[in-house]
Amino acid sequence: MQFTGQAAPRRKTRRVMVGSVAVGDGAPISVQSMTITKTADVEGTLQQIYALAAAGADIVRCTCNEIEAAEGLAQIVPRSPVPIVADIHHQYRMALAALDAGVACLRLNPGNIRNPDQIKLVASEARDRKVPIRIGVNAGSLDKDLYEKHGGATPEALVESAQIELRYFSEVGFDDVKISVKASNVPLMIESYRQLADVTDAPLHLGVTEAGPPPAGLIKGTAGIATLLAEGIGDTIRYSLTSDPVDEARAGRQLLEAMGLRERKNVDLIACPSCGRAEIDVYKIANDALEAFGDREIPLQVAVMGCVVNGPGEARDADIGIAAGRNKGHLFVKGVNVAVVPEDEMVSALVEWAEFISEHGAEAAIARVDTEKARREAEKDRALLLTEQGDDANAAEQKIDLIRKR
Ligand code: SF4
Q1: Is the CB of 310 under 6 A from ligand 1?
Q2: pLDDT 10s digits, 117-138
Q3: Is 311 a pocket residue for ligand 1 (Cβ < 6 Å)?
Q4: DSSP string, 161-189
Q5: What is the pTM of this model?
């Protein structure tokens, strides 16, 4: 099979529109996150929504747990930069109030609203207003009858919960749905989505729920979401982290970019792991560079390499990179040396060159300098370091000699 640079072909699904954002049927996989403010706090919630959107969220969910929250939504929805989903748990009246507020989508938890008449009433209202609903099954709040029937929160139980809700919806002629079957246990989550994908063509919302604080929460979320995406399953994703929700949005975006499922929006920073050859504190320079680029929309791959001996070669595919020589940095664009800068200007030079490339392209950046001069300086530094460190920068040979003499 030919390598396409992307994950597996995507599963064919129907499409729902969450406001202006298409989900399913080949639409770009969207990133979701959720506000942690009180929804009644309109200004605070909007501020968080803007931060989430800047970090990569295409859709944002807000809780609608009380009438003040629904009233807040009525003011938030028209001012939000992204479509708003109302999260409903126990009170079907909150779903109706959220629809009145003009939200772009509802999330219903079938484990928490179990009265069929109430479910059908909400679905009818959503149908009339052409507002989609996410059926959000959660292993932790699974319908207790299903829990007993299946002997626990099994993949079969989670899928059946979604199917029961789908049947209620179809009784009132409503099928504008996306579905999630989340669990905090990664293998359970993966198997539940696989089984769900076999029985429905509704778009799927992926997530490992209650994954916890980073880095473990990020790893769990990535293990579940990326595994399914690599199988072509999933149309929209959310990381659930015990952390600033901006981290969730950023992680979602970065995962999709890393898997070639979304175009790069921000800098993709690669850096060597450092070793005995490093002429700088690679961790510090890489972190300073990450901070300097922040969420700026510079869709380039930027490399930070610890030495000029191997750095430029190993990062030759990066759009721009810097490799350390003795007290200085050698900048290279697409593997071509372009400039030498003092060590304390490495990060600012990277940002400046990246901005130029982003605006004018790599060729124009290379054309504006004497690359031969930069190449000669890099060669000189490289030769110097090789002479000093030899091929064995970590002095392994010396250590082996020592060991043998004991
Ligand atoms: S050889 Fe150079 S580029 Fe490679 S890990 Fe070591 S310091 Fe980094």
Answers
A1: yes
A2: 999 999 999 999 999 999 999 9
A3: yes
A4: HHHHHHHHHHHTT---EEEEEEBSSHHHH
A5: 0.87
